[in-house]
Amino acid sequence: MSYADDLRLARDLADMASVVAMDRFRAQDLRVETKPDRTPVTDADQAVEQALRAALQESRSDDAILGEEYGGDRASGRQWIVDPIDGTANFLRGVPVWGTLVALAVDGRPVVGAVAAPALGRQWWGAEGEGAWTADRIGGTPRRLAVSGVRELTDASFSYNSLKGWQEEGRTEELLRLADCVWRTRAYGEFWSYLLVAEGALDVAAEFDLKPYDMAALVPIVEEAGGRFTSVDGSPGPWHGSALATNSHLHDQVLTMLGR
Q1: Which residues contact 109 (CB under 8 A, 6 or more apart)?
Q2: What is the CATH number of domain 153-258?
Q3: 124, 133 contact by CB (below 8 A)
Q4: Distance CA 250, CA 203 (A)
Q5: pTM of this prediction?
Q6: Distances (CA, A) of 217 to 83, 85, 105, 179, 195
Q7: β-strand partners of 207
Q8: Domain residue ranges in the chain
Q9: pLDDT tens sequence for the chain (260 residues)
Q10: Is CATH 3.40.50.970 the right assignment for the domain spanning 4-144?
């Protein structure tokens, strides 16, 4: 089955979201609230998701929607999964590492993903059977993504997002064990780490305390670039609260290192 039309729509939605979000990035009157889970939300998060939902209602009215700000449950059949601004804390502090994530899942399996990070001037997209791609700006020349060929952990570059996340999960010992085995560790954070794996610039990325909308758009991009995407415990897909993305060659080794 071809998802080319859905991929075009996902990219259009991400581009539209970029316009809405950039209008509020570094705005002096940005409104910020704290949600019950103690994470921040801005008026930009809400405006972007409202725009995405309206566009999807017009173009894919029969499809379900799951979004960070206005909810939804996992659904069978076709479901769009959106994170209006992944990296809200960065957004409200003026850090350019944030982006809109748009995914289509079919029976819970992400098959289309598009990410726009306008403050970085980057886009990434992919779909089952369509490959994974990136461009430096809207309308830029696409480049096909491919993961690295690194096969030894001692040669690997690993991004773990934040030490606090691993501490809260009680997995500090496993993190330090893996960090001690690899060539290099960094905490690039948010969606970016996983896309750097898809680009071949990183070899491993992992973190905890994630929701499906944090991951769904990343899954087909990483996998179409030749990588693997599971939970830290090895379960496929974005539904298990954690993420491990690798270049495939290292995946089983990392799962062993992170196992209890």
Answers
A1: 237
A2: 3.40.190.80
A3: yes
A4: 8
A5: 0.95
A6: 9, 13, 9, 27, 10
A7: 243
A8: 4-144, 153-258
A9: 899 999 999 999 999 999 999 998 988 888 988 877 778 888 899 999 999 999 999 999 999 999 999 988 888 999 999 999 999 999 999 999 999 999 999 999 999 999 999 999 999 999 999 999 999 976 789 999 999 999 999 999 999 999 999 999 999 999 999 999 999 999 998 999 999 999 999 999 999 999 999 999 999 999 999 999 999 999 999 999 999 999 999 999 999 999 86
A10: no
Q: Return the bridge partners of 158, or none.
A: 185, 204
Half-sphere exposure of 90 (CA within 13 A, CB side): 18
Give the closest residue to 219 by CA, choosing from 249, 252, 197: 197
Element (H, E) at 43: helix 43-59
Whether the CB-CB separation of 219 and 120 falls below 8 Å is answered with no
Amino acid at position 98, single letter = W
Query: Is 242:231 a contact under the CB 8 Å cutoff?
Result: yes
> Do 109 and 216 meet the contact criterion of CB atoms below 8 Å apart?
no
